[in-house]
Amino acid sequence: MGRRSREKGKRGEREAVGVLRRLFSLPARRTAQVDGGLSADIVVGRAVHIEVKRRAAIGAMRFLEQAENDAGEGNLPLVLLREDGDKSWSVLVRLENLAGVVRELERPERPTTSP
Description:
Layout: H1 3-24, E1 29-30, E2 42-43, H2 61-71, E3 79-81, E4 90-92, H3 95-106
Antiparallel strand pairs: 1-2, 3-4
């Protein structure tokens, strides 16, 4: 990996640490990356492994933009993703919406709609 790429990664990690601290008051910090070790990019003092990826373009973001456009007023957009051949699902949500999404999903009274 070239120096410019490493520097961009560091900037992305520092930015992500700042967002985690601001949005969630987490004691987030960057880890020392040594020889591509197995440590997370960011630790928050909990059992969460955080990798930071900052790219010029991430294809899955088009799906999130579609969800945001279709969500309607007062709804929080969330995308469920699964690759063919993989049994597990992943979630794509804007970090600033994460707490709100979790709160809404945990609310006992949920409107029921037919598929």
